[in-house]
Design a protein that fits this description.
The complex is a heterodimer of chains A (453) and B (124). Chain A has three domains: 72 residues, no CATH class; 182 residues, no CATH class; 132 residues. Chain A is 78% helix and 0% strand. Chain A has 18 helices and no strands. The N and C termini of chain A lie far apart (87 Å). Chain B is 56% helix and 11% strand. Chain B contains five helices and three strands, in the order αβααββαα. Chain B has a three-stranded antiparallel sheet with strand order 1-3-2. In chain B, a hairpin with a 7-residue loop joins strand 2 and strand 3. In chain B, helix 1 packs across helix 4. The longest helix of chain B is centred in the C-terminal third of the chain and has 27 residues. Chain B is globular and about 60 Å long. The chains are: A mainly alpha (453), B mainly alpha (124).
Chain lengths: 453, 124
């Protein structure tokens, strides 16, 4: 074997180690290999034998663990799910074994929590519907937060803060004297889960909620979690159908069991199980949210453009019904979701491409439509005054509109090559605070402001 | 002399930006230049330069592209952007302030001469 081919063999072996690391992309390994070769050349020119030079060059490169940890920290979009970056092998082995039992425990707590009110006479019948609607997020999300607190080894202060926030949510949902048919009940039922979900985000980030990268990780997690939850719900639907059908065949009515136990407990447990699936089984379905985004961005862009053309062509005014504002709020949420999940999976240093322009078209179209709707609806509100529902819907609309308008501006700068893409990411992650503030405002302040209407 | 990790980390960004401000370069050359500039005193772990370069790229302070010189290896070159220059100017201001402050402290307390090695450092 000649000296050169021996060195090539050693480098190839080193390169194979590099390629096995998921933190390192192919181009990163190539860049590092170039570095290694430069170092070896310098050392051999200084008089060392090639095998000595190789050893020194590898040593100076730093330990592979340190290196991939640094890369992971910088490129968290590549393996965001392994949030616990410093993977000390011996310490984590015992924890990974305990991971499953702890998850099952948290899921069981979530499932049983929803039956606890039943012990105090609040069974799951229709006249307690508003109680369950208000509190639905208070059964599963504390268990989920507890799971993350355990997994991220949260300190006692963080646990205290999390507990305090959940207690605050519980008080807000139950302390106000709200009538069962009041609008505020519905608003609390919608906004408390959002507020508490962001509290779960604090636990998810292990208390490091100020970090933009951790927030982005949480956004990614949310998207994947939704997908897993939907999949589990589908499976649960099949299970329910079979339970009902098979028992009916032998003359037993399983409907009571299904509606009192299987559905509520299953749904609560699924909240925790989906989170665990996202954390543990990512490689099974790798990052679905960005894939769906790729598929639906062009379709939504086309639909919105078609709507705009039809609107101008027919000159029909927008029919300002009660639900129109909510419909268009949802539209903005979807456009924002498409934007977020495109951002979350994007290689931040790639140059602007066709897909980015398409995304810009989508955002601008949504903005134009929303402005039309807002113009149409302002008249209604000035005529009939503010109600909790209208105020909340309008507030959400303004929050989303602001976000999308500034995103569109940053996007424009990016497609023209004037702004780095990271600015857009930072804007979105910072905006999470606005959502949190708004959701808590609706839950805590709206009943007071609107006299418990 | 052993320069502490924190100090190395803090000075890494201005050093890299300063070197790139003189013209485009690649990882290995940057590292060599840092070595030359510090008279071999500033020791970086080679590999850790790259995550730093990638971070600067993500923040928009530098741009990169792959170039293949005729007959050579494919190599990733980094170039400073206008935003990077602004960042460099800002870092320079901050460092100047720190250095000034340190200098006044050194001259105010002549008891600590740079030749004396503190006892806990003697073992190094």
């Amino acid at each position: 074997m000649t000296v050169d081919s021996e060195l090539e063999g050693q480098i190839a072996e080193w390169r194979a180690y590099m390629d096995r690391r998921r933190e390192l992309r192919h181009t990163d390994a190539e860049e590092l290999e170039d570095h290694l070769r430069s170092r070896i050349t310098e050392l051999t020119e200084g008089g060392l034998r090639t095998d000595e030079a190789f050893l020194i060059a590898v040593k100076r490169m730093g330990s592979l663990d340190d290196l991939s940890r640094e890369f992971a920290r910088e490129h968290s979009e590549r393996l965001w799910k392994q949030l616990v970056l410093p993977a000390e092998p011996e310490a984590s082995a015992a924890r990974t074994r305990r991971e499953l039992p702890v998850m099952v425990l948290c899921a069981a707590v979530a499932a049983l929590a929803i039956k606890v009110p039943g012990l105090f006479g609040l069974d799951m019948s229709d006249h307690n519907g508003s109680f369950y609607a208000r509190n639905i997020s208070l059964f599963a999300l504390p268990a989920l937060a507890a799971y993350f607190a355990w997994q991220r080894r949260a300190g006692i202060r963080l646990i205290g803060v999390l507990a305090a926030l959940f207690v605050l949510g519980a008080v807000a949902a139950n302390a106000y004297p709200l009538a069962d048919d009041s609008q505020s009940i519905v608003l609390t039922a919608i906004h408390l889960p959002i507020a508490l979900w962001l509290v779960v985000g604090v636990a998810y980030a292990g208390g490091d909620w100020r970090s933009n990268r951790r927030r982005m990780d949480f956004i990614r997690f949310t998207g994947e979690w939704l997908i897993y939850f939907a999949l589990l719900a589908l499976g649960g639907g099949v299970l329910t159908a079979f339970t009902m059908g098979t028992f009916q065949a032998i003359g037993l009515d399983a409907e009571g069991f299904v509606s009192q136990w299987l559905l509520p407990c299953g749904a609560m447990a699924a909240v925790v199980v989906s989170a665990w699936l996202v954390e543990a089984k990512q490689s099974v379905i790798e990052n679905m949210a960005p894939v769906l985004t790729r598929v639906f961005t062009p379709l939504f862009a086309a639909t919105l453009l078609a709507f705009l053309v039809a609107f101008i062509w027919t000159n029909n005014g927008i029919d300002v019904e009660r639900d129109v504002l909510i419909l268009f709020d949802l539209l903005l949420v979807i456009v924002l979701g498409l934007l977020l999940y495109a951002i979350s999976a994007r290689d931040l240093t790639a140059r602007p491409g066709l897909f980015d322009r398409l995304q810009l078209v989508l955002v601008v179209a949504a903005l134009v439509i929303d402005v039309l709707v807002l113009l149409a609806i302002t008249g209604r509100i000035t005529e009939f005054g503010f109600s909790p529902n209208k105020t909340a819907a309008l507030g959400e609309n303004l929050i989303l509109l602001t976000n999308l308008a500034w995103s569109a501006w940053l996007f424009l700068g990016f497609t023209r090559g004037r702004l780095p893409f990271a600015r857009l990411e930072r804007w979105q992650t910072r905006y999470l605070l606005v959502y949190a503030a708004w959701a808590w405002t609706v839950v805590l302040a709206f009943p007071l402001v609107f006299n418990f209407r | 002399m052993h320069i502490t990790k924190d100090l190395v980390a803090a000075s890494a960004t201005p050093l890299v930006l300063g070197i790139l401000a003189e013209g485009e370069s690649y990882g290995y050359a940057i590292l060599k230049q840092v070595n030359d500039l510090s008279g071999g005193q500033l020791e970086w772990t080679d590999g850790l330069l790259y995550p730093l370069l990638h971070r600067l790229e993500r923040l928009g302070h530098v741009e990169s592209d792959w170039q293949t010189p005729p007959g050579g290896r494919r190599r990733k070159y980094y170039r400073i952007t206008d935003q990077g220059r602004a960042e460099l100017a800002e870092q320079r201001r901050q460092w100047a302030t720190v250095v000034d402050a340190l200098r006044s402290v050194w001259s105010a307390t002549p008891a600590i001469t740079p030749i004396m090695t503190p006892a806990w450092e003697a073992g190094r």
